[in-house]
Amino acid sequence: MQGQGGDIRMRSRRTNIITAYVMAVVILFLGRQLASHMRLPAGEPVENALIFISDADSIDAGRQSNSVYRIGLDGSGLGAGAQPSMKRVVGSIPHGDAYLRISDIDCDAATQSLVIASHRPDLNGFHHALLDGSGLHFDKPAAGGLLSATREIALAPDGMGILVSRQDPAFAEPRFGLVAGDLFTRFYEVIKPAAAGLSYHSPVWSPSDRRIAYIIERHNRDLTKTYQIATASPSGASEAIVYESSLRISDLNWSPTGEWLAVAVDRQVYRIHRYGGELIRLTDHLGGATSPRFSPDGAQISYVAPSTFPGQNQLFVMNADGSRKRRVANIRGDVVNGCWVGADTQPSV
Fold it and tell me: What are the beta bridge partners of residue 249?
């Protein structure tokens, strides 16, 4: 009996040692993961601004790159220099002997986070910073799917979830699938795989984090294309088609109320109910309108339209019903609208 008791105590000690070892490994792993996301210092809060991508500085510098900028909703007061209304947040990001060409950005006002993607096949990850430009660092997957050749990126409302539209190298023609993960575990998995006749673009999160929306591009056998707006769970399951058209659908944004989707169809901005129905046209610009982004209170939408001056583009803001359009800025160079931080200080009428 005494021998059996000794065996039991020894097995118990072994179990305790193994348990302690496993817990130590888990704590070390979580500590490293947490530390990797505490590299962002406390930055200057950014409010009431539009965040966008432009190659304005690179025109004079003579290099094939672009930068992230912010601008006040009144078009002034956030910068100095040749274009005083603009403030460069993140300048040209070095990569090898050249600079990255930013393909997309997204941000979160609550955490003041900014995520920056590049469509390079040799760059497995994305850059992460605060909205004032501080704390810029490269974030890459720890495991799972690759994030190379990222076309678009979306940051969840909790400031942690990540969605990307990524080119699949298995196809000769560019085909894009959706990859999902988070900034904590840095584990990424393919939730919507690309196919020979199928691509997924412009992923966005619902304000509740419970649904995502995206654009499906179908390549038909007769060489035409069909575009669909779809919603699904964050895992890609329970997919529902909201709208379908033979006209090009190029961009998507979810309202903060969760009721509406803003979308660019045939280079004009529309909105549609999250469950479908008819498109409601909001713009009628001669040169077109793209990159719609809802304001944080859902009352307004910002977008980009070409200027009448060659090589220039304009940032506009309008009410969510399409009324009261006003130009925020005229910008020399290409412009892609990224995100909206804060609410407009001017009331909607």
Answer: 265
Contacts for 329-333: CB closer than 8 Å, 24+ residues apart: 329/71, 329/75, 329/85, 329/86, 331/54, 331/56, 331/83, 331/86, 332/56, 332/59, 332/83, 333/54, 333/55, 333/56, 333/58, 333/59, 333/66
pLDDT band of 232, cuts 50, 70, 90:
very high
Query: What single DSSP character describes residue 222?
Result: T
Q: What pLDDT does residue 104 have?
A: 96
Give the H/E segment covering residue 217. strand 212-219
* Contact predicate 105/153, CB 8 Å: yes
In sequence order, the 6+-apart residues with CB closer than 8 A to the CB of 185 are 33, 142
Map tokens 């990424």 to a residue: 188
Q: Specify the 3-state DSSP secondary structure of 91.
A: coil
CA 301 to each of CA 232, 267, 294, 339: distance values in angstroms, whole numbers, following the listed order: 24, 15, 4, 10
pLDDT of residue 338: 92
* Residue 239 near residue 248, CB atoms below 8 Å: no
> What's the mean pLDDT when you consider all of the chain?
85
Give me the sign of the Cα torsion angle 233, 238, 242, 248. Answer: positive
In DSSP notation, 112-181 reads TEEEEEE--TT--SEEEEETTSTT-EEE--SEES---SEEEEEE-TTS-EEEEEEE-TT-SS--EEEEEE
Neighbours of 330 (CB within 10 A): 16
Of 264, 268, 246, 270, the closest CA to residue 320 belongs to 270
Identify residue 47 by its one-letter amino acid code: E
Residue-wise burial string across 86-104, b where 16 or more C-beta atoms lie within 10 A, e elsewhere: bbbbbbbbeeeeebbbbbb
pLDDT digits (tens, 9 = 90+) for 282-324: 999 999 999 999 999 999 999 999 988 888 899 999 999 999 9
Would you mind telling me the total number of residues written for the chain in this entry?
349
- Taking residues 104-114, report their average pLDDT: 91
Strand ranges (DSSP E) for 274-342?
280-281, 290-294, 300-306, 312-319, 326-332, 335-341
